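One chain shown below:
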Amino acid sequence: MMMKRKILLIVLLFTSVFTSADEGMWLPQLLQQMNAAEMRLKGLQIPIEEIYSANKNSLKDAVVLFGGGCTGEIISAQGLMLTNHHCGFGQIQEHSTLEHNYLRDGFWAMTMKEELPCPGLTATFIIRMEDVTTSFTKALENLNEEQRNAKIKEISSALEKKATEGTHYEARVRQFYAGNEFILIVSETFKDVRLVGAPPSSIGKFGGDTDNWMWPRHTGDFSMFRVYAGKDNKPAEYSDENLPFVPRHFFSISTKGVQQDDFTMVYGFPGRTQEYISSFQVSTIVEVTNPNRIKVRTARLDVMGESMRSSEALHLKYADKQSGVSNAWKKWKGESKGLLAAKGVEKKQAFEMDFKTWYSKSDALSKKYSMVLPSIETLYKNTRPYLSANDYYAEAAFGVEVISYAMGLKNLVELTLADKPDTAKIRVEVEANKVGVAGYFKDYDANTDRKMMATLLNIFDEGVADSLKPTYFTVLRERYHSDFVKMSDAIFAKSDLDEEKEMEEMFVKFGRSSAKEIKSDPAYQLADALLTFYRSRIADKVKSFNSDLTLLNRLYMEGQKEMQPEKKLYPDANSTLRLAYGQVRGYEARDAVYYNFQTDLDGIMEKYIPGDEEFDLPTRLVELYKSKDYGRYGVNGTVPVAFIATNHTTGGNSGSPVKCKRKFNWYQLRSCLGRNHE
């Protein structure tokens, strides 16, 4: 039986706010035993089993993993789905042209026939989550890491097969608490998802990078899609014959408001948190990783921004890329600032002293845990140069599109020029590349990429020691006397990899001579040198580091749980379904500065700058404001826009629904601001 419950639907905004926050990103199937009492004290008014149930319809059946990195929610009996504008941004951009610029002007399908297919976009529902740790515990005893990983894969495959036998569902076993516990997750994925509507970017991205991850927030960050199914209401590939999906549950939209201290809960798929890491990892984030990535992305955004401002066509080509680069860039800046302000390293060090005091009271505990933190410290000390180089390769060297494109051709070139070519594999590679040409060059501009190469390779050269660069790169650098503009100009002048027509023709008649032609291309030669060196000298080190760190973190996590048996410890987020809860509250941003819990349309108009890239507004919205024509959405002469709450949130929660004790008007976006952890 299909259920519905009035719920406030919010597309979430996240930032780092180290105020009084409600800690935890909880597994929904454990709410009854771990969180029910506290949730009721804070104001929860529905039974826990209505939030999550494996046996009957519940709120979880309306919560969707949107694509691979956001959350959405079903808001009608015909599969209508709401998520963030920035989550749907790539799909909106994909459908946009100079003649129909949906990013700039917005898009609304007036009928279902006008809804736009989104190839590759998926909507995944959770059917059930089951703790299967007992299936692993004894089987993993006394195994080394290689044996352990093989055994985990073996047991997981058997459990997944059994869980989905006779169904169209999928299943995956995921690890929690740094590999100390295991949960089987059964899901259902729909592959026909269509764009229904989106506001113009002057609403959907109002405030741009300036307001992103910040409060007060005034953006209308939402977009709408619809999930379609076959005639049996099961997942199906796109077809005109498909029908709107009939959900097991959907949320209806309330038009009432919230007040200070109202209960809220956020239901979604948070991407990644690292709550239980050591001080050595936090210091590496603050001192190495974030500064490196912020530096490179600042340069990337500058180059993209200059091109985007030069023409509408280039703005359309690079809008989605710029959005993706800038979102993490702004987050890392705020994260570093927050960790420093909150003395994150010092707090971790204080906990580590408590941990040492605890295990020192017992010979058995000392034997088990005394070397875990010193080992983590040594591991980071020895690997930091490689971790830093890894950042520059990933963000700078491989951030040049022609280099990234050339890297994608490496397998095809090597297959074709092998002593015994595998014609079947070559044919598959050729077809994939042939199909991919149009999509790649649709959003590519060679002149922009040429400038990007000059800028990023200069930063790469400054940030990475010569011993961690390929000889081919240093030879090129010397040839052009460290003038990366000249180097870039020369590479692009001789390369064919930046020409759509050349690449189309090459894959139509692809053969051994074509592979030789690619191999002699200067962009390919640079990419090949960078990738080959990276794999042999950087990636292997980082892989070994991650393997060693995984083992040590698992032991450290086990010790933290053993040290605090009475404390409720939630597992780090890993893109699995979670629930966070808290209360609607403002916060003290800094000395003598307090932010209210709610923003409104008046605040939008205060920020409004006609013609500005970030703070312009649609003429119609300005007219409505002047006439105060708000209809039923007006409250005290204005329109509520966003609110903040103490919920613990992070990336991936974007698009999540928020349930409140009181109901809230959603004329425009309401943002829920929580404590963010990386």
Residues 279-362+371-559 form one domain.
